[in-house]
Amino acid sequence: MSKIEILAELPKLSKAERFEIRDRLAEMDSSGWLDGDDPLSDEAKVLLEARLDEMEKQPENSMPWKDAEARLKARFGE
Q1: What pTM did the predictor assign?
Q2: Which of 26, 31, 45, 56 has the fewest Cβ atoms nearer than 10 Å?
């Protein structure tokens, strides 16, 4: 299957299938969570992984970035 064919098929997949593909691509592209020069502590990485897992399990509890950004700007200013 060519890259063009794969890209054409992606919109036909369910949300869960797209998450599975993202996870698999991330596994293939790196041996670690982030690059070695990553400024995040191990504790921060664990927290981020937990939050990502929660979002994937309950996507209805999350919001699009543009909505979150608007709420943050309204609360804290630009």
Answers
A1: 0.40
A2: 31
